[in-house]
Amino acid sequence: MRTWELRLDISSFDPSKFPDESKRLAREGIIITTLFEESKTNPNCYRKLYDLENEIVIDIPSPKPYTPIPFEEFMRRHIEHPDCMPEGYFIAKSGYVYVGVSSLWRGSEELGDVYQGLTGVKSEYRKRGIAMALKLKVIEYARKQGFKVIKTFNDSGNVGILHVNEKLGFKRQPAWITFMKRL
Fold this sequence. Notes:
Elements: E1 2-9, H1 21-27, E2 30-34, H2 35-41, H3 45-57, H4 71-79, E3 84-94, E4 97-106, E5 113-121, H5 130-144, E6 149-155, H6 159-168, E7 171-177
Parallel strand pairs: 5-6
Antiparallel strand pairs: 1-6, 1-7, 2-3, 3-4, 4-5
Helix pairs in contact: 5-6
């Protein structure tokens, strides 16, 4: 398995090269909000996010089959984690259904970097520009917060999101190669 770290220099990103997909999506009934906003109005938002991420992660290439973690562990690792940024945790919704996600995590304060976690869209909503719209929201938020670099990781087999990242200007770093020996 080959995985790249990708980095985006936020100061060199030109948002004018990308149409505002969120307006087009809104006309189709898909809006983008944040975990911060959802948590104020939807007491079930964490369970819905857990279910969405479990559905999305199944399609991410991995050397072994995905096994969901218990909800309580998801809460500890994701929502309650000190690096979680609810205002930078974007959710795409179609009505009340969560259909996509892209999240930011605090990085090194000294370096001014931030990590982009999972970006994914439910399979039946893919190829509609939702992932691109989510990524653009993440970049916009990171810029407004004064971050300098967004870092993320992509498996070489996850060509859809790799293409989105490269279109946005993320640059590949040396690859991580993982070997697995079955005994």
